[in-house]
């Protein structure tokens, strides 16, 4: 049992990668630490449970990375996917710090494995967790417990006591009653508001009812809302988020990685009117997969269909749900409740526009369309070999980008521009500082680990002072 009558040096709210990195970092700096995880123990860890890898800068190949990934290349990738909507000072700081995270995270018990193949193309840039996100999370929790970090599960925080930018205590539900947790400093690492459909509807309208939530149902944004209400400066566009195309047959919550489709580059994507609406071959998949949720969200009824043929059937990582199959395009349309004539016309026009080239999904190849709107810039091959296949997809939202503004010390910034007295943030709750829009695979875990480590260290030093 955790003794809530004592005052801790550092209170960490959240239970995922960012929270655990903060807790461990603070503890290793000599602080007493309490972690409040709002979920039950089985569901601990927020979205970290569903992750697979992390993007870190490194100067040379390693046992699990095939080559160097310099700070400058990382920065250029981030600049490209965000369209320049990022805090350059913070982003470059994160990238520089990510170099050391590769080694620091191993010291906390996490193990790496060689990159997965397929369309990911991440063998040089991203390190994969041995056993996936849950194994990574379990390793961090084990280290936290060995270090003497106190952890409370089912600990939903319902109020924060903050005066003039100074955190005093957190009120949490405990059984049928309430309890108060006091600490000298606060690290907020409780995620975004992606599981709060009503909040999403403020920005997306009724379309949000058709969103599927890839991760935890516990990320409802309550801590973020409390902090903003207590004078913390917000950052980020509330409509921007990490959202991918996931199988329309996935559960409303917690479907995770196994419902995500990486087959887009191998075919075409059409809406309910059997019309294409975006370039499926715009760029390497890890730099574009996270735009497809928003693209599908903008389509009628927030539904779309990935169409491909037998030549591509085994070219990508399989998902939980099998593709829908038919011997003809018209037969496929019938199974999808699409207009057969319209789908046949779309496929025929696409096939006629395809120009021959040398197909290679690992590079920006020369297989493209000509005279077609929208074009398919790379990896364009005719859809003509039966059987034909389709995946129905909906927007799968991972995390939101509206968050708390922070400085390089991961200290929250108040609305008057001054740093908070003793409040820090890490992970998705402050990701909007780095991610104004867009995404590249593994950056969410980088943000969590880097700023978690910084926030824990800075919070511990703040508590000592």
UniProtKB/TrEMBL annotation:
Span of domain FAD-dependent oxidoreductase 2 FAD-binding: 9-436
Pfam families in the cross-refs: FAD_binding_2
Any one GO molecular-function label of the UniProt entry: oxidoreductase activity
Protein origin, superkingdom: Bacteria
Keywords: FAD, Flavoprotein, Oxidoreductase
Cofactors demanded by this protein: FAD
NCBIfam families: CobZ_N-term, PRK08274.1
Protein name: Tricarballylate dehydrogenase
Protein species of origin: Bradyrhizobium lablabi
């Amino acid at each position: 049992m955790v003794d809530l009558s004592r005052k801790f040096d550092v209170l960490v709210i959240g239970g995922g990668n960012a929270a655990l990195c903060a807790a461990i970092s603070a503890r290793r700096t000599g602080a007493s630490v309490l972690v409040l995880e709002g979920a039950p123990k089985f569901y601990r860890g927020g979205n970290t449970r569903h992750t697979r890898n992390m993007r870190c800068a490194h100067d040379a190949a390693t046992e699990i990375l095939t080559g160097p990934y310099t700070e400058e290349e990382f920065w250029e990738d981030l600049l490209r996917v965000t369209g320049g909507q990022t805090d350059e000072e913070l982003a470059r700081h994160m990238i520089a710090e990510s170099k050391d995270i590769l080694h620091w995270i191993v010291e906390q018990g996490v193990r790496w494995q060689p990159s997965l193949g397929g369309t990911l193309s991440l063998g040089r840039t991203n390190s994969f967790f041995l056993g996936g996100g849950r194994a990574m999370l379990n390793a961090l929790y084990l280290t936290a417990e060995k270090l003497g970090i106190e952890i409370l599960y089912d600990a939903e925080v319902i109020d924060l006591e903050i005066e003039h930018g100074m955190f005093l205590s957190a009120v949490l539900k405990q059984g049928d009653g309430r309890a108060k947790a006091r600490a000298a400093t606060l690290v907020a690492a409780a995620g975004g508001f992606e599981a709060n459909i009503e909040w999403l509807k403020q920005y997306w309208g009724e379309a949000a009812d058709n969103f599927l939530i890839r991760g935890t149902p516990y990320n409802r944004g309550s801590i973020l809302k409390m902090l903003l209400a207590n004078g913390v400066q917000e950052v980020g566009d509330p409509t921007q988020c990490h959202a991918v195309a996931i199988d329309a047959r996935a559960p409303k919550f917690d479907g995770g990685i196994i419902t995500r489709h990486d087959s887009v580059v191998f075919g075409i994507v059409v809406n309910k009117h059997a019309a294409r609406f975006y370039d499926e071959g715009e760029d390497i998949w890890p730099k574009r997969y996270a735009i497809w949720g928003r693209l599908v969200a903008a389509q009628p009824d927030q539904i779309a269909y990935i169409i491909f043929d037998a030549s591509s059937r085994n070219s990508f990582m399989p998902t939980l749900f099998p593709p829908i199959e038919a011997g003809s395009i018209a037969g496929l349309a019938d199974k999808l409740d699409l207009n057969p004539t319209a789908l046949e016309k779309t496929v025929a026009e696409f096939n006629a526009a395809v120009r021959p080239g040398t197909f290679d999904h690992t590079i920006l190849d020369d297989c493209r369309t000509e005279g077609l709107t929208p074009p398919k810039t790379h990896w364009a091959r005719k859809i003509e070999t039966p059987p034909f296949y389709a995946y129905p997809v909906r927007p799968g939202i991972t995390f939101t980008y509206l968050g708390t503004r922070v400085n390089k010390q991961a200290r929250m910034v108040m609305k008057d521009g001054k740093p908070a007295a003793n409040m820090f943030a890490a992970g998705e709750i402050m990701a909007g500082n780095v991610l104004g829009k867009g995404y590249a695979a593994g950056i969410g875990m980088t943000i969590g680990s880097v700023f978690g480590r910084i926030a824990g260290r800075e919070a511990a030093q703040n508590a000592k002072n």
